[in-house]
Design brief:
With about 80 residues, the chain is mostly helical. Helix content is about 65%, strand content about 0%. The chain has one domain (about 1-80). The two termini are about 30 Å apart. The model has no long low-confidence stretch (mean pLDDT about 80). Keywords: Membrane, Transmembrane, Transmembrane helix.
Amino acid sequence: MQKIGTYIAILGLLAIVMNLFNYVPRLLAGIYQWGNGVAWSIQTGLVVSGIILYMLGGPSGEKARGARWYFSGLSFFLYNFNHY
């Protein structure tokens, strides 16, 4: 899930940077038909959802496999929130 989150966040960032130079990624060309505000919202949503997916993926590697449930994004927050 970390790879998918990384790709989505990079796509959103790339779309934002390319928009500043008046270029449009082909994959996201249709969002500009709905207006500039909607396009910015979708691009920001891509970045945020990519970061969330990356965080929910948790750490990778042999040492992290046992503690994956504890460090996976939302579970980590909820665990700490309930114990303070």
